[in-house]
Amino acid sequence: MKKPVLILMLIAITYLSFGQRWRRRYDEGSVPERNGLPSWEVDQTLPKDTFTFVRVIYDSHSGRYGRVGGPQRWAIDYPDADLNFSYRLKEMTSLNVDPNGKTLRLTDPEVFNYPFLYIVEPGSLSFSEEEAQNLRRHLLNGGFLMFDDFWGEADYANLYYEMKQVFPEFEPQELSLDHPIFNIVFPLAEKPQIPNVGVGTESQWTGRTWETADSKEVHYKGIFDEKGRMMVIICHNTDLGDGWEREGDNIYYFKEFSEKKAYPLGINIIFYAMTH
Description:
- This protein has helices at residues 3-13, 80-92, 129-140, 153-166, 197-206, 240-245, 251-275; strands spanning 50-51, 54-57, 59-60, 96-97, 102-105, 116-120, 125-126, 144-148, 173-174, 219-224, 230-236.
- The chain has 276 residues and is an alpha/beta fold.
- The chain has a single domain, classed as Domain of unknown function DUF4159 (Rossmann fold, 3-Layer(aba) Sandwich), CATH 3.40.50.
- The chain has a seven-stranded mixed beta sheet with strand order 5-2-6-8-11-10-9.
- Helix 3 packs across helix 4 (153-166) and helix 5 (197-206) crosses helix 7.
- The longest helix has 25 residues, at 251-275.
């Protein structure tokens, strides 16, 4: 039996240990509640070799192009998506993983200590000049940023505008299916479109996996530096975070989207970011 297949079977075996969790409001700097999710001690002999999932806290505007912002758009799917993904990453790989992750603003000097950053729902994202400058410095110095969970052309237009404040000289490039992102650990037969749990559960009857009328086609784009290193992956018209957060809500959604797509692609992205 091939290792990726065995690993995915292990996910399925532990599925029933995770019950439904409810979305909550979180204050900046709060410690996430684990709600029964197993924890573990970080290997202190190699503290600098610990992978930490860092979610970026950002401010939202009133909708330059995309949806109307809210004070906690940054916290959609938090903390369950981050906690579940960190747990699965530890269970399925040899990485030393922080069980709790972090939430940081781009203006926090601590952000430069972590190579991987995650931003969710950038359709109402608004960078300050300092944030744009810090993000540029972080990424040009070897960091990696993942955008996730935003749908439609207006949301993308907002992201494009904000990233032009960071990298006016670079254009996002569509990734082909033969890019290592789609096969470095788990080989994927398609560019997966992962909807929220409601749309995903209904897709077994409707066949629909998109959330808005103008988001039927999924896009994975990269922003590369002058040497060709990918600094940013843009996951547009898809929602890996819901695949992580809502894995325990519905068995069909779990098997079709969490197990087959959201976790494998998420792990591929981490391994690509850490090795390229």
